[in-house]
Amino acid sequence: MTDEPDPRFLRSRQAILDAARELLLAHGPVAVTHQRIAEHAGIGRATVYRHWPQPEQLLAEAMTTVPLPFFESPAAPFRPWLTGELTSLARQLELDAVRAVATTLANAALWNPGMDARRAGFAAAVSQRLASALTEAERAGELSLRGELSDAAALAIGPLYYRATIERAPADAALIERCVAAVGVWTSP
Amino acid sequence: MTDEPDPRFLRSRQAILDAARELLLAHGPVAVTHQRIAEHAGIGRATVYRHWPQPEQLLAEAMTTVPLPFFESPAAPFRPWLTGELTSLARQLELDAVRAVATTLANAALWNPGMDARRAGFAAAVSQRLASALTEAERAGELSLRGELSDAAALAIGPLYYRATIERAPADAALIERCVAAVGVWTSP
């Protein structure tokens, strides 16, 4: 390998990733096989194997093209900020692509160590960002936290995740408001 | 077909279901294919096809062997009853088999109408049982409900489901207590 990879190598890599993502969104993770990717991308199966010997790695990489950027840049006043973040998360979870990635991650993590590491990384990042924002909100006198800070993500996000993936229905403003209220007692309006 | 099916037919059917469940729990839904079931059960692939032409139906049927009996038989006092039910649900969600079934259901439902019907049936049953129990608790003067009754399942179960499948950690008594508190204001201790 040189510093500048073969452009054909990069093109076939991108075509394979696109095919894997399209198959995942259209037919689910069971469709992300070497055979079907090769057919869908119009590329030889041997080429797909050369890029990704394991289909699980390819599935994981295809999923990273759906970003999950939540709870970044917290800012006072924190109650409307949290309401906005949870509303954006609820709207994202209504998109087929995001639901596909979230449920594939939770499912595949049970058997695939690479997926489990990705799940753990996502869970830890969300939990830490939320804990840090709520700690700031408490310092600013806007919030009196209830219980363990480490429970905040489950209490605030769990109902939206259940609504989107088990109940398969939209989360309205009233449910989101109750998720905001679940983390503690807000002293700001 | 006669009223009394061939005992060999029933035996091979059971062997296929056992193999499907074992493959699901050991390797995930991607392993539930005609080929692997035939190998695992020591049965010809044609026999597996004859019983279940579609592997998705087989996966769905293998999953029904893991029962999810929650919120049945509510009884006063309702607060300890709900705490007990949510504790039992949290303990179930710590079992690999239950986590496998719950996350496979949420994931496969996105592409498979049969799985989606099963998901919808589970969500509706849980939501109705919980709503009925909470209505009784309110009538008994034990609870002052907050918000929509149709949000109760998401608020009480969602955090435990997120904890088990995204955070992959146990739910302690404090988190369960906050799920109980999320449905309304309890006037009983």
What does this structure look like?
Chains A, B: It holds the Pfam family TetR_N. Helices cover 66% and strands 3% of the residues of chain A. Chain A is mainly alpha-helical. Chain A folds into two domains: 7-63, Homeodomain-like (Arc Repressor Mutant, subunit A, Orthogonal Bundle), CATH 1.10.10; 78-186, Tetracycline Repressor, domain 2 (Orthogonal Bundle). In chain A, strands 1-2 form a two-stranded antiparallel sheet. In chain A, helix 1 (7-27) packs across helix 4 (55-63) and helix 2 (34-41) crosses helix 3 (45-51). The first copy, chain A, is elongated and about 60 Å long. The N and C termini of chain A lie far apart (59 Å). In chain A, 40% of the residues are buried.
Could you name the key traits of this structure?
mainly alpha; homodimer; 189 residues; Tetracycline Repressor, domain 2; 2 domains; two-stranded antiparallel ribbon; 3% strand; 2 strands; Arc Repressor Mutant, subunit A; 66% helix
List the helices and strands and how they pair.
Two copies of one chain form a homodimer.
Chain A: H1 7-27, H2 34-41, H3 45-51, H4 55-63, H5 78-93, H6 96-108, H7 113-139, E1 143-145, H8 152-165, H9 173-182, E2 184-186
Antiparallel strand pairs in A: 1-2
Pfam families (chains A, B): TetR_C_11, TetR_N
InterPro entries (chains A, B): Homeodomain-like_sf, HTH-type_TetR-like_transc_reg, HTH_TetR, Tet_transcr_reg_TetR-rel_C_sf, TetR_C
GO molecular function (chains A, B): DNA-binding transcription factor activity; transcription cis-regulatory region binding
